[in-house]
Design goal:
The chain is low in regular secondary structure. Helix content is about 15%, strand content about 10%. It has a three-stranded antiparallel β-sheet.
Length: about 80
């Protein structure tokens, strides 16, 4: 089950469960659409993978399966991914 993390790992913008401007990678790294497009160039800085829109969990299911409250933030910043 998705954690539905509460913030962008790059800029720390709040990303509530109903937000539509959230993208995740296959490992659930969570970023806002602006950071993905303008800072990360569509590549996850953690795993090198691509992003997909985070689904919206229905309100009734949020009551039973709440979103995570644990904030994740890249300690070293999240500038553009460096070439390997």
């Amino acid at each position: 089950m998705l954690e539905l993390r509460p913030n962008c790992e790059c800029c720390d913008k709040d990303l509530p469960p109903e937000a539509t401007d959230v993208l995740i990678c296959t490992f659930e790294c969570t970023f806002c659409a602006d950071c993905v497009e303008y800072v990360l160039g569509g590549v996850c800085p953690n795993c090198g993978g691509n992003f997909a829109p985070r689904p919206i969990r229905p309100t009734a299911m949020l009551e039973k399966y709440p979103a995570s409250t644990k904030r994740v933030l890249k300690s070293g910043g999240c500038g553009p991914r460096k070439a390997a």
